[in-house]
Inverse folding.
């Protein structure tokens, strides 16, 4: 798994040998994708210097054709957001996970 974040550089998550790597959006390039060969790329809906649509476009531009997972705070219409990103990058399998709406499930 490759986790896209703000900042620069790459480093394992959980220490050396971890199957997950944190990568700054600014340094995401074809060499990192080739070296990591991730089955899943994960990012926040937005972060310092990027948003999920920019990440998706960059991934496709670099030749990635796998699963792209996006995490977000509560959204009023998560399906609309996911559909918009998925339509822009049909080459990727896009999934969006959101925190529940405040008060959801409350009595």
């Amino acid at each position: 798994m490759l986790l896209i974040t703000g900042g620069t550089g790459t480093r394992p998550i959980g220490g050396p040998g971890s199957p997950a790597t944190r990568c700054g959006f600014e340094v995401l390039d074809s060499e990192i994708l080739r070296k990591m060969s991730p089955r899943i790329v994960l990012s926040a809906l937005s972060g310092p210097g990027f948003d999920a649509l920019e990440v998706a476009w960059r991934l496709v531009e670099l030749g990635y054709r796998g699963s792209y997972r996006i995490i977000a705070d509560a959204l009023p219409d998560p399906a609309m957001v996911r559909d918009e990103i998925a339509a822009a990058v049909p080459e990727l399998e896009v999934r969006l996970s959101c925190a529940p709406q405040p008060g959801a499930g409350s009595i």
User: Anything to note?
Assistant: The chain has three helices and eight strands. The chain has a mean pLDDT of 89. Residues 78-88 form the longest helix (11 residues). Strands lie at 2-5, 10-12, 21-24, 40-44, 46-47, 50-51, 67-72, 93-98.
